[in-house]
Amino acid sequence: MTFRRNHALDRLLVAAVTLAAIAVPAATSQAPDASSTVTPYTGFGGVVRTTTADSTPAPLVIPHAAPGSPNVVFIVLDDLGFSDLQPYGSEIATPNIDALAKAGLRFNNFQTHAICSTTRAALLTGRVAHAVGMKDLAGNDTGFPNARGRITPAAATIAQMLQTSGYSTYGVGKWHLLPHADMLASSPRTDWPLQKGFDRFYGFLSGWTDQYHPSLVEDNHSLVTPDRPGYHFTADIVDHAIAYLREGQQANTGRPFFLYLATGAVHAPHQAPPEYIEKYKATYTKGWDAIRAERFAREKAMGLIPSDTVMPPRNADDKAWNDLSADEQKVYARYMAVYAGFVEHTDAQIGRLIAYLKQSGQFDDTIIFLLSDNGAAPEAGPEGSFTTPYGGRLSIEESLARLDDLGTERSEELYQRAWAMASVSPFKKYKLSMQLGGVRDPLIVVWPNGIAATDDGTVRSQFVDVIDVAPTVLDVAGLQAPAVFAGVPQIPIHGRSILSVLHDAQAPAPRDTQVFELRGERAIYRQGWRAVSVHEAGTPYDQDRWELYDDAHDYAEAKDLAAEQPDRLKALQDLWWTEARTDGVLPLTAR
Fold it and tell me: Under CATH, what is the fold of the domain 512-591?
């Protein structure tokens, strides 16, 4: 007779014998010696024996911010030109931002990195964007350290540094610091805001989104796109910011907070409630040349820029307003009216946040940095874009028929490039350029308990770069950037604190040299002088044409001195290569 072995029964018998052995100890087993220690815990600083009576506890160390550490708020506006705010010479009403400027300081020599992802990486890390892997827009890894498309773990963000030092950290709005492939529901979350130091986040991950129907995430999950009357993204993120702050205050933990409010405004698509657009419908019929000249005059009158400033002529590739047809003027004026309404609507939402901080008793002990990430946006070209931010053009006849759609959910507009020229008055060029229109932007700092109220919007003219903001926050919080964070050795902070500049109008600038690069175009600032390259894509870099400016005596860079001072220019060119190697800018890649 043949027997078939029952493997399932065998396994049950083995399991039963094993359980019996566990349940019935051998007769010779004894309780552990009370003097022996049990150490299964890595990193535990106490002693574990048989019972708590003969063991030594080591309580968890919970980080606490230093006494007196202020709250910190970053308000980052998107694609806003130097002159687009009321305290910077604009005709656009921004009363809440104007009140902040009058209570604090305006900077007229603040530099960014000319495009959103690079500026945001530099702002949040205090390092040159190339050095942390973000030489251009967040995107795919090119294989080189300066273009990983994400922030390297070797550069902890200010949110991470504050979070591990006893701060509550909240982010709302735009992120744009990770590749598109990592934004999907099934993607890893390594470079999402919560993994970069934020306790809570509400907003969008990409470079832009529709203001009426945004693509939203909260914390580490995606949300359903809003589709309801009266919705607007800027109001929504301010609602969430206030809710996060209220929850934190109600918890009564005593922890100060860091709030990163990065609006989608005023990046395309330009969209705003109709009542905000309506008031500007007649304002821009005079055209971009007149608006640019009027802003320039205001900037001088208010003392924002030196009285001897010379404004460069209109950019060569931008048309004169008077050369447009009557229909073109009518359509293009409405584009700018929508933009102005978008700016004022954003100001109103910022006002709601400031009102909450005051009502809750937190405003006076909060240091606020309000800035733009780069100059005004030229990407829609001379004709503008009606239905998508880039390339969705209609004919003038079609645009006239749909003029009232501009700014609504039925359009996704970006204004004509020449309006960007007016937005950056008095400078040349715009976003994406190393000329001042791309890199010199508004910066307002207010801190009632830390900076004496000025009541007049006092101007600071020291050279300050976006990399200086994070080390300033560390300074006011009494912290040092860590040499190692989460087990990863850190890239040293490139920025310098401007706390002395906040307190003293005569304090020296935090540094006298800074290198810039974007898509092959290069610039360097050195002790009041600036050299800028003009690079044609696909040509050798040694064929670039360089311009030289005396910023100390030519605020708007109206006169190129390259031909007059070739030795100075050559020294700055050589210094550019030295600084580029030091700051991780290389290799160069034109796009």
Answer: Arylsulfatase, C-terminal domain (3.30.1120)
